[in-house]
Amino acid sequence: MNKMKDRVKSIANQLSEAGVKNAQVGIILGTGLGSLVEEIEIEKSIPYDSINGLPKATVEFHQGKLIYGSLSGTKVIAMQGRFHYYEGYTASEIVIPVRVMHELGVEKLLISNAAGNLNSDWSKGDLMLINDHINLQPDNPLRGMDGQAFGHIFVDMSEPYNLQMNDTLKRIASRAKVRLREGVYSAVAGPNLETKAEYRFLRMIGADAVGMSTVPEVIAANQLGLPVAAISVLTDDCDPDNLAPVNIEEILAVAKKSERGLVKIITEYLEQ
Q: What's the rounded mean pLDDT across residues 179-194?
């Protein structure tokens, strides 16, 4: 048996024994996007540190908790804080939560992130439904023996984001009068933000937003046949011709303000 496969099964067994069972939807919450948890009827709140085999969340604004309960009548597992390549983890370690949730029987995956806005027609504070991505990170969760342990590694990525889920999310946003852009997410290694020249390059290759997460998780979900959708909160404008120094506090404040729309979309999605 593969060590990573054993690790995933061990974590899933720990959670199952702790009462984390029969969840239908998995949710991964990004930077500054933790208030969705306030809407969950929480049955279990488990710190990552107490789950043997799970990586540790090292980013100061990530809570680092696994939340299990009901949201809009649906059993969910919510990861309040994720793992990143820039924290020193391999791509295979980053996607352990996705593989664990699949092992526990989760049927769909919803992902959120905070991202920089590259589209000059949009503004910070907008939400963007991801319909495609560009992977510029130097690692891949399907690489090597770890990847092979979870299935076929030459995974088709012609439609990495589930069309049916995306259509439903768009209809919900329209009905709720929440502005939901749609575009391409580019994933970079981080942790530094980009230079003006790098922002110009990302625009040239077709990216509407840039961030440091999500793509490894989406790749792993596609390998497992787990339908996935993802929404970015655009927290800052990445205009290379009018680039202001980064303000992390402002980015977190924008994420906090804009996630009200995100919470509305996700809760109404789960009602359906």
A: 96
DSSP conformational letter for 185: E
Strand locations in the chain (E)? 25-29, 41-47, 65-71, 74-80, 108-117, 127-135, 180-187, 209-211, 228-237
For the packed helices 96-103 and 3-17, what is the interaxial angle rounded to 10 degrees? 60
Characterize the bridge pairing of strands 65-71 and 74-80.
Answer: antiparallel
Measured CA to CA in angstroms, residue 96 lies from 27, 101, 192, 204 at distances of: 13, 9, 24, 33
What is the separation of C-alpha 112 from the centre of its chain, rounded to a whole number of angstroms? 4
* Residue 65 tokens, joined: 């908790």
| Lowest model confidence (mean pLDDT) among 41-50, 181-190, 212-221, 249-258 | 249-258
**How far is 47 from 63, CA to CA, in rounded Å?**
8
Helices within 176-247 (DSSP H only): 196-204, 215-224
Alpha-carbon gap, residue 65 to 28, rounded angstroms: 11
The secondary element (H helix, E strand) that includes residue 249 is helix 248-271
Q: Which amino acid is at 146?
A: D
| Contact status, residue 65 vs residue 81, Cβ threshold 8 Å | yes
Does the pTM exceed 0.90?
Answer: yes
| Angle separating helix axes 248-271 and 163-175, nearest 10 degrees | 100
pLDDT tier, 252 (very low <50, low <70, confident <90, very high otherwise): confident
